[in-house]
Amino acid sequence: MFNNIMVPVDLAHLDTIEPALSIVADLAKQYDAHITYVSVTASTPTSVARTPQEYEQKLNAFAQERHKVHGQPVSIKVYSSTDPIANVDSILVKAVDEVGADLVMMGTHLPRHLDIVMPSHGGKVATHTNASVFLLRLAQ
Amino acid sequence: MEKKPQNPSSDDSASSEGIPAPEGAANLIDTDYVIGQDNITTNAMGLNLDLHGKVFSISAIIVLLFVVLTLALQDTIAPIYDAIFSFLTVNLGWFFILSANVFVVLCIGLIFSPLGKIRIGGADAKPDFTYMGWFSMLFAAGMGIGLMFFGVNEPLTHFGTSFDGGSWAPLAGAEGDATGAAALAMAATIFHWGLHPWAIYAVVALSLALFSFNKGLPLSMRSVFYPILGERVWGWPGHIIDILAVFATLFGLATSLGLGATQAAAGLTYLFDAPESDVTMILLIIGITLIAICSILAGVDKGVQLLSKINIAMAALLLFFVIAVGPTLLIATGFFENLWSYAVHLPALSNPFGREDANFSQGWTAFYWAWWISWSPYVGMFIARVSRGRTVREFLISVMLVPFFVSVLWMTTFGGTAIDQYVSQGIEAVRDAGVDLQLFVMLEQLPLSQITSFVAIVLVIIFFVTSSDSGSLVIDSITAGGKVDAPKPQRVFWAIIEGAIAIALLLGGGLTALQTMAVSTGFPFTIILLVACYAIIKGLMSEPKAV
């Protein structure tokens, strides 16, 4: 059913997606799918890395760690942006095609009124891509 | 960043295809400081916040204090602000003029030096924006709004004082000589809107871009001081520099927004008989703030860039329309004559010492330099953020020389047309109109004035939006400890604060007083910029050259 699962990852907030990672691993094992970890980082220095290259190394190390845990094949892709917080949705939509993902798994928050002006990233991605999108309500 | 599509099925283990080529040898500064380490993160009422504890809270307290003080003690405090500013321009006018010359010399020197080959973001970094998008943003943030108001006013004013031989004339004026007075007026105007202001912006922008993209330090004013202060820059000396930058940016923007709304309302009243009331002005500020909020939510690429492009396209249309229906030949020849006149008068105009035209050199030039310098943290930081991937030479030509020629063309077109209307056609209405209305009165003498005036009003409003949105992004990143990926509600917060301060001061009075105080920050920033010059040279010397 699924060959390539795309998992958006923010290394600065790894703790918040930690629970989702095991669900991703379970699903990947069930379908023997490849996992692509995708990040959108700032082109300026961030709390995680001082250059996009350094960020890429760290994401690669993260992917290797995950590979050791679940054993499924993994790859990564990093996008750098002048304004990552505003561009993350459209970059992730583009990434779905570029990595050839057929399923996107990402964490999201519970619905709230603020979503009207600032929609959740997961919701935005789900409405703009043809791939299946699995949004995990991590707060629950 | 360019990527090639990957074929996941060929990967059996972790691979990295995100960034195809290394960005070139990076020469990062070795520091243990982690960006955001002093930040406070919280999730209050469903809103995520990520703020630099000290810079945010102290800036907020100081901002509040100054607004309350200015509102409550207006009559007492306004003269104090004025006295501080007069002291600075009268006694330290030479310091501003001398420093601005240093900035111009440094920038021109770098264009021709081998250091100009160094690329911002590493030898192989690719630009994030097209030339058009990049130029539109830096121009709209840099001085668009000023050109709208002073494009007609300043040349006419200098012409008047020069022709009459008044004490405010530049370089002793040209009494009774209309041609000489016009040449001097244009030279003085171009001096104030040409190489010097853009060199000021370029120094700040280049130093920030270099220390952020090439040295790996946070995108914040304090980073420029690293070569001098070292690790101490992460402590109080750095906090103070950043707080000062927030102060200058916020008050510079808020007071301009308030005064700009007054001027735009005057334009609307003149053109469409709109009621010139507080309500009109407040509605204008709210409207500008709302559009700015939409723009910052859409982000730099889809918000600020798009608006800036619309802005520059409309400004270009207005410019070429005036060239076409105005005195075309006079503008065409005037462009070169004015450049020549500028070149001839430049040594005398930029001389910091022994000036006999003290009113002009202190009241105009030093005032302008303080003004541009107080804006430089905001404009410079924004330009820095969007300039990754450009070489130093490309950067300086685009940030200094191209805007210079655009400013010369703009001033020649608008100022030259106005002077021509007054001198050759004897139309005195332009000269006699108030500062806010001179542009519209000038346009009225040309065909289709209803349309052009409307375009001009819209331009003024969008220029304010592009200042407000990019300014809010800058304040947000400084108060978030140099993070550009702080949660969105924070940038909205700053845009609202800016509008709220503008409205409070508009209703309570004190806009001009607080603006004077904001411009006074030009003095400490002049020192910061001189340090930036040293930091640029030192930083560039330690960079690998681009191939």
TrEMBL record, chain A:
Span of domain UspA: 1-137
Origin: domain of life: Bacteria
SUPFAM superfamilies assigned to the protein according to its UniProt record, in alphabetical order: Adenine nucleotide alpha hydrolases-like
Gene3D superfamilies linked: HUPs
InterPro entries: Rossmann-like_a/b/a_fold, UspA
Protein's recorded name: UspA domain-containing protein
Organism placement in taxonomy: Bacteria, Pseudomonadati, Pseudomonadota, Gammaproteobacteria, Oceanospirillales
Automatic annotation (TrEMBL), chain B:
Domain of life: Bacteria
Pfam families per record: BCCT
Topology relative to the membrane: Multi-pass membrane protein
Protein family: Belongs to the BCCT transporter (TC 2.A.15) family.
Gene Ontology terms for molecular function: transmembrane transporter activity
Family annotation (InterPro entries): BCCT_transptr
Keyword terms, alphabetized: Cell membrane, Membrane, Transmembrane, Transmembrane helix, Transport
Protein's UniProt name: BCCT family transporter
Subcellular location: Cell membrane
TM stretches of this protein: 55-73, 93-112, 133-152, 195-213, 234-259, 279-300, 312-336, 366-383, 395-414, 446-465, 492-511, 517-537
Gene Ontology cellular-component terms listed: plasma membrane
